[in-house]
Amino acid sequence: MAGRERERKREKEPGVGREPDGVREHVRVAVIGSGFGGLGAAVRLRREGITDFVVLERADAVGGTWRDNSYPGCACDVPSHLYSFSFAPNPEWPRNFSGQAHIRAYLERVTDTFGLRPHLRFRSEVRGLRWDGRALRWEIETARGALTADVVVSATGPLSDPKLPDVPGLDAFPGKVFHSARWDHDYDLRGKRVAMIGTGASAIQIVPAIQPDVDRLTVFQRTPPWVMPRADRRITGVERWLHTRIPATRALRRQVLWGIRELQVSAFTKRPKELGLVEALAGAHMRKVIKDPELRARLTPDYRIGCKRILLSNTWYPALARPNVDLVSAGLKEVRGSTLVASDGTETEADAIIFGTGFHVTDMPIAQRVTGAYGTTLAEEWKDGMEALRGTTAAGFPNFLTVIGPNTGLGNSSMILMIESQLNYLADFMRQLDVLGGGIALSARPEAVQGWTRMIQRRMERTVWNTGGCDSWYLDANGRNTTAWPGTTAEFRRVTRQVDLAEYEVLRPPGPDVTPVRSVAAPEEVTA
């Protein structure tokens, strides 16, 4: 009787409290992460009538990458009205490209508007997940205790764990060292000699923001980025009034922003040579500011635009042209005391080192903590490259869905569109479980995952990411593009609209605990 009473209490108060007698708490769904993906999943679950879920967050607030990245100048490079949920429009965006503080505030409002606070578990970093093949549920160990769940939604995101290079001598550097995603706001950069390592999306925002305050700023550039003008401006009060009072104007604005980007996709995925005109525009943008021919040559990429992420900035080149900024056209090789040595031999004295060296994208740390039906971790299964059916489910990991999984990244549009498509897939996944009956699980068939992956990689062959002549974070250690989606967002929405049960094995509670046997069927190519 007491056990049934506890179960009823959990159904009434999802995600609240702990079991007093040591019995492991059980929930229908456990969501990992509270960024756009995790909060979106939580909203979608509630809209589907599912309230027995928790959101496990390792930090003490929601926001994901927009909580962690608070460096000077941090802002989005996707227009605000497209970089927001379709089900939670914000007519009050202050700029075309809003800053980190406004985006984080937006996610806090989404949390409150949709009643997600009772489901949140802060300071609950997931330390391990293991599939229980007999009970058909996930055993989850967190920093604040253990629980089990029928379904796990991993929404940790690819931009959550900073990547620091292994630089000899760095441990003995006497000054300050931090990554752009772990900004030390207590350290005063004014009057300091600062080294910025990297020239990616974070660096081109940080450098202009700190350049006026530092004594000397040295930028270490291994590969120059393509940089386009940033069409940013303040959104007027009249526009905000119209978007609030006449929602159709807001919807139209979003539709136009989306449509323009959909039209650009074919150049990235099918006809990279058409990007030559864009390269000319980027070159003109640089020549307007950089008058020194030698510096222009060092800032001009030798690969096709779009091969790496195209960056947007009106302040990057002006900052590099300032007299207190030096550009080193090489990566950081070693550190000798306070002296930084580049791979070309250049030596620089520094008081602080800021790493803008990206994240663990193709080797997400969460994969090392997930042990599936075969007794192997997701990282072990992905040792030759990440792969998941429709970017969401991996073979051997039943009832485990990844938001922003393999080959769901974009080079020119809003990731929120891709997230919402995966939320559609999650919703239908839960419906299928209900239709099939309680106590069952769905496991992606290996042949379906392999077929999907073959289709993706075949289409990837002619994309700018594979043919553009660069080495980017889109590619894994084996040179395979396991990050980007080679199509439009509309196409991805279509292929994730619903779950095809033919691509899944339906698991029911077994008698004796038998380790599943891998399928050896020849993979069929999936069409998208």
UniProtKB/TrEMBL annotation:
What Gene3D superfamilies does this protein's entry cite?
A: FAD/NAD(P)-binding domain
| Keyword presence, NADP | yes
Q: Where is this region: Disordered?
A: 1-22
Q: Which keywords does UniProt give here? A: FAD, Flavoprotein, Monooxygenase, NADP, Oxidoreductase
Q: What InterPro entries does its record include? A: FAD-bind_Monooxygenase_sf (IPR051209), FAD/NAD-bd_sf (IPR036188), Flavin_mOase-like (IPR020946)
Q: Which cofactors must be present for this protein to function?
A: FAD
What are the protein's GO molecular function terms?
flavin adenine dinucleotide binding; N,N-dimethylaniline monooxygenase activity; NADP binding
Q: Record keywords: NADP included?
A: yes
**Function text:** Catalyzes a Baeyer-Villiger oxidation reaction, i.e. the insertion of an oxygen atom into a carbon-carbon bond adjacent to a carbonyl, which converts ketones to esters or lactones using NADPH and/or NADH as an electron donor. Thus, can convert bicyclo[3.2.0]hept-2-en-6-one into the oxidative lactone products 2-oxabicyclo[3.3.0]oct-6-en-3-one and 3-oxabicyclo[3.3.0]oct-6-en-2-one. Is also able to catalyze the sulfoxidation of methyl phenyl sulfide (thioanisole).
Q: Which family does it belong to?
A: Belongs to the FAD-binding monooxygenase family.
> What is the protein name stated in its UniProt record?
Baeyer-Villiger monooxygenase
